[in-house]
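Q: Here's a chain of 238 amino acids. Please give me its 3D structure as tokens.
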Amino acid sequence: MKYLIVDDERIARSELKFCIKSIDDQCAVFEAENVESAMEIVDHSDLDGIFLDVQLAESSGLDLAQKIHQNKPDLPIVFATAYDKYAIDAFAVSAIDYVLKPFREEDIQRALIRFKRIKHKISVPSCPSDKISVWMGEKALVISVSDISYITTLDRQTVLVTRKGKLTTNQSLDVLEQRLCSCGFMRVQRAFIVNLNTVSEIIPWFNNSYVIKLCDNSEEVIPVSRQKVNQLREVFNF
């Protein structure tokens, strides 16, 4: 893991670096005292996270956060400051955490855990095509992938639930899962493949399980197997 500390006070940088290294002695920690040096490191280093002071000598850390996200929108930022009054402003620029000086080990550890979760979050691969063909009887029907809400089975038939209605096919869930796994779909349970872009709610259920609701099917809930819960957590970070 690679982190950047941006703070115009050398002592503050040293204290935070010491705290980070005491928690994770294998990580690399860069330091910057101003906007120019910070942007130089951001542009030329593959960082996993930034600890950023709100008040810098020549600029606002909030302004710098916006500038960083213009270049690298997915780079997570934690504000590390002596002032709690900027917390709302910090989260308005997509900060993932807000830690106060003097630094406490538990706060820094929490921030590092969040950085690591984001780094290892499963990304949904891009889809090779926005269309898919599904055999219905003696013809192949071409439908838009984005129109599919979920796929299930009923009476030994595979049912595709779409925005335009339900379609049935003899193609198995295994075949469709293989074709759609790189298009934002996940097999959340043996009998259900879900379009992750249509998920609207994830709800705790019995025995540490979950169910999900979809945007187009507000009254229906789809069960998630326990084996798939961690994968779903990594996708949605809940």
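Q: Can you summarize the key feature?
A: The helical segments are 10-23, 35-44, 61-71, 87-92, 105-119, 173-180, 226-236.
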